[in-house]
Amino acid sequence: MMKSLSISTRNEPLRVLIIADQSLVEAIHPELEEDGFLANVTHSAEDGCAAVHAAEYGAILLDQGVLKSPCNEYLLRWRRDGLRAHVLVLLPRESTSAERAGCLDAGADSYLLHPLSVEELRAHLRVLRRRDGGFNPIRWVHDLEINTAIRSVKRAGQPIHLTPREFELLQFLANHQGRVVSRTMIREHLYSDGGNNFSNVVDVYVRYLRNKIDKGFETPLILTRWGQGYLLRGENV
What we know:
The protein is α/β, with parallel strands linked by helices. About 40% of the residues lie in helices and about 20% in strands. β4 (about 85-90), α4 and β5 form a beta-alpha-beta unit.
């Protein structure tokens, strides 16, 4: 069965799956992060289908250009399998009115046209986020404050400077707070394009993050579960 929609809560950003070619992803990913969205990316129909079934998303951007068959076929199958996420379809500008209507009838919430307007995409996603009950970019983990809108972090009121990769790692741990995430899960999240295969890269970044988040504080927040992975301390621990 397909996983159901993960509704954005006041502490959790809207998770977006982007199924598009790499050049498009590079153009829109930083803009979505600026708005506080948490985006995962795939570049092919096969990887996109696997990602849709493997995790929960609030919204999906599906580019017809990377699909091997009309998007209607994917949408109908996903909806039949129980997908409840909002879906935005990116279509060629020369697509016919019948093709555009077919996407909506198959289960898309809306469509956009090539060349994609990033501002239009951001506006669509903001509407979906509001529809799902509001959004607060600030998340608290004990005395740790994470602001996803401006990508800032404070602990006990003290500002902590993180690199973009360290912030992504912290946000990933926060989205799974109280649950163990494996090294493989972390590596796939940090390097969704498969760009880094060093065996110890996750341990290195966890060590960097731990030195900034936990060093000098009495209660450690980043915990290790030997043989399993890492987790961010839960609220009741």
